[in-house]
Amino acid sequence: MKLKRMKLKRINLRLIKQRRMNSRTMRSKYLRAKTLKQSPALVLLSLLSTQVLAESYYGEGDFYLGGKFGGALLDLRPLDSQESGQDKQNPVNATTGITFGYHLNNYLAIEADMSYLGRYRSEGANSSEEVNHSEELFSIATYLSTQYRLSDDAALYFKLGPAWVNELVSLSSGLGLKYRMSPRWELDTGYRWIQDTPDSGDDLYEFTIGVTYKFGLKHQSKIAVEINPVAKAEPIQPPLASQVNIDTSELFSFDSNRLINIKSLVNFVDTLAIKICDLEHIASIDITAHTDSVGDKSYNLKLSKRRAEAVKAALITLGLPAKMLHTSWSGEALPVATNSTPEGRAQNRRVEISLKLAE
Prior knowledge:
The chain has 359 residues and is of the alpha+beta class. The two termini are 48 Å apart. The protein is 25% helix and 38% strand. It has 4 helices and 13 strands. The protein folds into 2 domains: 32-54 and 219-357, CATH 3.30.1330.60; 63-214, Porin (Beta Barrel), CATH 2.40.160. An 8-stranded antiparallel β-barrel has the order 1-2-3-4-5-6-7-8.
């Protein structure tokens, strides 16, 4: 009887041990399948994301083309002292136009504006003369424009330059608000002033709304993934630390923590699925964000923090556990290139992602 009980006990122990082994195997297969299962969807998402790649919000060398419509008011001045106390109705007309510009850098642009300003009556030299005729006003203006960023998507701008109105040169200025609807499209609402229009010499005020389209956005180059070599004859040794480094310099628009390209992050997750397979072998994934030296140092430090947290959130969305993701940020303190050139600043705007295997 005792011998029978001992045999049954041994059989039960074997069954328990086998169940534990099967449980571990199934858990490992589940984690591996979960990681690999996400890859096709992520690759599809990365293909869609390549349509909205950009190097910066306003990168050096970007052209833009816009269209607008609105209304203009002609501020009529009294023709003589007899009219100084009389109220005259200022004429208002519909306007339309196109703009074409080129960004010199992240803050300055040159712009050309061609507009139809409407038809206005041209009066005589004094109040006793009758109206002679009506005249259509066309303008061609060139501006130097500067902007101030309010947020990742909104910016105030101011512009100043000469305007040719029906072949006469006048001073013109304007201000407005641009709002980014997508990496290439912007909504533009603006106000413009033109001094001393032809014939009457009256000032003209124009209010417009329109859209602009940006050309020349640079696509991200392929991200190099560097993996320390492991001897082919030896399996992966848990005590040995291996590290994967990815340097991504074009994840974000300029002065923004909005991700505009997740392709490199998708590649990173796919690399984990292919090279590591089991998430249990990963000790930690460290995310470090950097900026260039444009702007205030304390602001850049806060911006790098927001960028690191944005990458962490994206990796969690792509299926990585939050507990193994750790963020850090250094602002402009650790450049890898000079900040005196556009190319160097582009290299310094980066997020470094490093992976360490469990010991």
